Q: What sequence folds into this?
């Protein structure tokens, strides 16, 4: 019989404590529901500094709504 799939016991030092990989694993563990949490955090992070002078790009509410719909559709 084939042994059950298990994460390799030994760890490569490169992957050890690699935040990107850790976050990837966390996303895979918690599933879709965490994606909303992540996107919410991202929204907060983006809202906080908010330099309007950056390129002066302002979206109309309808554009924003459209973008949100597409984002939701992509995320599922």
A:
């Amino acid at each position: 019989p084939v042994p059950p799939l298990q994460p390799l016991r030994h760890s490569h030092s490169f992957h050890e404590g690699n935040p990107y990989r850790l976050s990837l694993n966390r996303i895979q563990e918690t599933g879709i529901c965490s994606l909303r949490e992540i996107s919410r955090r991202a929204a907060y992070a983006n809202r906080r500094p908010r330099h309007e002078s950056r390129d002066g790009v302002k979206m109309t509410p309808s554009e924003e709504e459209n973008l949100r719909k597409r984002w939701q559709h992509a995320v599922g």
Observations:
- The CA atoms of residues 51 and 57 lie 10 Å apart.
- Helices lie at 19-30, 33-47, 61-75.
